[in-house]
TrEMBL record:
This is Glutaredoxin family protein. It comes from the Archaea. It comes from Halonotius pteroides. InterPro entries: Glutaredoxin-like, Thioredoxin-like_sf. SUPFAM superfamilies: Thioredoxin-like (SSF52833).
Length: 94
């Protein structure tokens, strides 16, 4: 079994776009056969993150690659998850 695709969601409390993004992510993850680990991080809990992201939340990262800001598009997320699943655990060759 391969490692799960890692999704990191930078968000904040009382953010309707953040809630909507999480709903879309949950729905897409439930609808795919890709193993996924989702971590939600409150940017306001860390001064550096608050400075980095400011009002630019939600910000979604998939396997350390910036994927979405503000809105998550379900079809595009499915495509990105499938592509990421095909590269998880693969070692680059020289």
């Amino acid at each position: 079994m391969s490692d799960p695709v890692e999704i990191t969601v930078y968000s904040r409390e009382n953010c309707h776009l953040c809630a909507s993004a999480m709903e879309t992510i949950d729905r897409v993850v439930d609808d795919t056969d890709v193993a996924v680990a989702v971590e939600e991080i409150d940017v306001d809990a860390d001064a550096q993150l608050a400075e980095t992201y400011g009002d630019r939340v939600p910000h979604i990262v998939i396997n350390d690659e910036d994927a979405f800001s503000y809105r998550v598009h379900a079809a595009e997320l499915r495509t990105k998850l499938r592509a990421a699943a095909n590269t998880v655990g693969t070692e680059p060759t020289e």
